[in-house]
Amino acid sequence: AQSVTQLGSHVSVSEGALVLLRCNYSSSVPPYLFWYVQYPNQGLQLLLKYTTGATLVKGINGFEAEFKKSETSFHLTKPSAHMSDAAEYFCAVSDRATSYDKVIFGPGTSLSVIP
Amino acid sequence: NAGVMQNPRHLVRRRGQEARLRCSPMKGHSHVYWYRQLPEEGLKFMVYLQKENIIDESGMPKERFSAEFPKEGPSILRIQQVVRGDSAAYFCASSPPNQAGGANEQYFGPGTRLTVT
């Protein structure tokens, strides 16, 4: 069965610094991978997704993620943090063994941006 | 195109009462998913429904919880005889019919925050 781990439940960066949020997955088949962001008291919003093709995926708000099969990783990065990036970030994998898009979420990483 | 709608946004129930959470998917979406989020935790899958059918309820507690997605109207998540442990945020998501060779994005509603007193 698919699973997702996110290293670091809380990450703090200074404004303007690099953002790196880590995600590792386990999957018996080539996965579909997602990053979602959740702002306080809101639902989740898709940042980016990997299905097939190019392993470097660009998303909204300047975020990108790289699928590395050999490392079973899908880390999320942004070159320069902005105050508005403070939120909860969830990595997710689609369980392609099912007949539908069942998505398994990681526990989340809370990102704080320090002025 | 309106997004996924959930109501109420906040719901307070006393122990033993029933909670009904509603979800209207995006226009054209026929797939609905319900998730539960406890404080400091990620989203836990509960149930996946298509119109008039429950496809996967493997994440639903066996007792007190039920879900439906009727032909007309919103999807309903019903919790009977609520207990304090049911206090959580419940999110609904919807997606369009499956597209071959692709992973459909799930569009999330703003959630219903249930508090059991």
Provide key terms for this protein.
heterodimer, A: 115 residues, mainly beta, six-stranded mixed sheet, four-stranded antiparallel sheet, 12 strands, 0% helix, globular, B: 117 residues, seven-stranded mixed sheet
Provide an overview of this structure:
The complex is a heterodimer of chains A (115) and B (117). Chain A starts with a strand and ends with a strand. Chain A is mainly β. In chain A, the strands form three sheets. In chain A, strands 2, 5, 6, 10, 11 and 12 form a six-stranded mixed β-sheet that branches. Chain A contains no helices and twelve strands. In chain B, the strands form two sheets. In chain B, strands 2, 4, 5, 6, 9, 10 and 11 form a seven-stranded mixed β-sheet that branches. Chain B has a four-stranded antiparallel β-sheet with strand order 1-3-8-7, with no helix packed on it. Chain B starts with a strand and ends with a strand. The model of chain B has no long low-confidence stretch (mean pLDDT 91). Chain B has 117 residues and is an all-beta fold. At the A-B interface, strand 5, strand 6 and strand 11 of A face strand 4, strand 5, strand 9 and strand 10 of B.
Topology:
The complex is a heterodimer of chains A (115) and B (117).
Chain A lengths: L2 E3 L4 E5 L4 E3 L2 E3 L5 E7 L5 E7 L5 E3 L5 E5 L4 E6 L8 E9 L6 E4 L3 E6 L1
Parallel strand pairs in A: 2-12
Antiparallel strand pairs in A: 1-4, 3-9, 5-6, 5-10, 7-8, 8-9, 10-11, 10-12
Chain B lengths: L4 E3 L2 E4 L5 E6 L6 E7 L5 E8 L2 E4 L8 E4 L6 E5 L8 E8 L11 E2 L3 E5 L1
Parallel strand pairs in B: 2-11
Antiparallel strand pairs in B: 1-3, 3-8, 4-5, 4-9, 5-6, 7-8, 9-10, 9-11
